[in-house]
Design goal:
By secondary structure, the protein is α+β, with helices and mostly antiparallel strands. The chain has two domains: 189 residues, Fructose-1,6-Bisphosphatase, subunit A, domain 1 (Fructose-1,6-Bisphosphatase, Chain A, domain 1, 2-Layer Sandwich); 127 residues, 3-Layer(aba) Sandwich (D-Maltodextrin-Binding Protein, domain 2). Helices cover 28% and strands 20% of the residues. The protein is built from seven helices and 13 strands. Helix 4 links the parallel strand 9 and strand 10. Helix 1 packs antiparallel against helix 2, helix 2 packs antiparallel against helix 3 and helix 4 crosses helix 7. The longest helix is centred in the first third of the chain and has 21 residues. It is globular, with a radius of gyration of 20 Å. The relative contact order is 0.13. It binds 2,5-anhydro-1,6-di-O-phosphono-D-glucitol and manganese (II) ion (2 copies). One manganese (II) ion binds next to strand 3.
Length: 337
């Protein structure tokens, strides 16, 4: 079988962007490099002292870092070294990181990322991920500013995630379908394994943290009960699957068909997940794969953004399932949780 690496694939696809000069390709390549380094550390997380907050100093005199800080540092370093971005926004940084260097002075892009998604799963050997979203800058020159990030999800030029799972995969879209690459550790390359990924219209997995049930909106409560009912025609009851790493839950549902729900709760009235670097990129991927992503009422990618770390409820997955849960949300909108 002829293997196509991420690098080869990106070069081939460059012709999809008539005015691009290869910057986006290089940017995706840089993300791939950081992903390999993070994967290497994730794989040996049980061996080295990278779990938890150790507060220790290692043999090189460096402070031992939590894996999410390590991942953040790696992605920032790779993006800075690549010279294609003028600013980075990260879950790990309160403010944006403007980039002011000689090689990035003509940079056209900004990247928003969740460097390590599912952090609570690091210490228990369960899949974690990285999520990234790429926008064209809106400011004209110099280091990027917060304004460059205040764009709706519909303006994304590319987005994707890396899942550090039983294998490491990089999945991305530039708005022309979703492509998945699996890391072949023997050659250290991401190889095209899932061309043009499509999700099922009607899945049968629902993923939600049911521990929060009492605090869910009435529509979500009623939908969960609907999922549990017996009905041959719609293949119910559905299976409940929830890992607690959004990337892993959404990756599985993308492949087998299902819905991922993180609604508002009484504790988190705006939901938990972040619009800029979690919901929008995952929404772009799922829409490109034929699915839907909404707030329960409207399309995620059209939600106006006013804050870097803005939160939103998320209902994402197979389109029939998202439609169904939205129907419940509208029907029970008036009932208080
Ligand atoms: P992060 O580790 O980046 O903070 O994100 C965790 C997110 C998401 O990945 C996951 O689906 C969700 O939080 C799990 O939250 P609960 O533990 O509240 O279910
Ligand atoms: Mn996250
Ligand atoms: Mn995170």
């Amino acid at each position: 079988m002829k293997v196509k690496t991420l690098g080869q694939f990106i070069i081939e696809k460059q012709t999809d962007f008539p005015f691009a000069k290869g910057e986006l390709s290089r940017l995706l390549r840089d993300i791939g490099i950081a992903a390999k380094i993070v994967n290497r550390e994730v794989n040996k997380a049980g061996l080295v002292e990278i779990l938890g907050e150790t507060g220790e100093t290692n043999i090189q005199g460096e402070r031992v870092k939590k894996l999410d800080v390590f991942a953040n540092d790696q992605f920032i370093a790779a993006l800075k070294a690549g010279g294609e971005v003028c600013a980075i926004a990260s879950e790990e940084n309160d403010e944006i990181i403007p980039i002011d260097s000689e090689i990035s002075k003509n940079a056209k892009y900004v990247v928003a990322m969740d460097p390590l998604d599912g952090s609570s799963n690091i210490d228990v050997n369960v899949s974690v991920g990285t999520i990234f979203s790429i926008y064209r800058r809106t400011t004209l020159s110099g280091p990027g500013t917060i304004e460059d990030f205040m764009q709706r999800g519909t303006e994304q030029v590319a987005a994707g995630y890396i899942i550090y799972g039983s294998s490491c995969m990089l999945v991305y879209t530039t708005g022309k379908g979703v492509y998945g690459f699996t890391l072949d550790p023997s050659i250290g390359e991401f190889c095209l394994s899932h061309p043009l990924m499509q999700t099922k219209t009607a899945g049968n997995v629902y993923s939600v943290n049911e521990g929060n049930y009492l605090h869910f909106p009435e529509g979500v409560k009623k939908y969960i009960k609907y999922c549990q009912e017996e009905d041959k025609a719609t293949n119910r009851p559905y299976s409940s699957r929830y890992i607690g790493s959004g990337v892993a839950d959404i990756h599985r549902n993308l492949i087998v068909g299902g819905v991922y729900i993180y609604p508002t709760t009484t504790k988190s009235p705006n939901g938990k997940l972040r619009l800029l670097y979690e919901c929008n990129p995952l929404a772009f991927i799922i829409e490109q794969a034929g699915g839907k992503a909404t707030t329960g009422y409207k399309r995620i990618m059209e939600v106006p953004i006013t804050e870097l770390h803005q939160r939103t409820p998320l209902f994402l997955g197979s389109s029939d399932m998202v439609d169904k849960v939205m129907e419940f949300m509208t029907k029970y909108a008036e009932v208080k949780a």
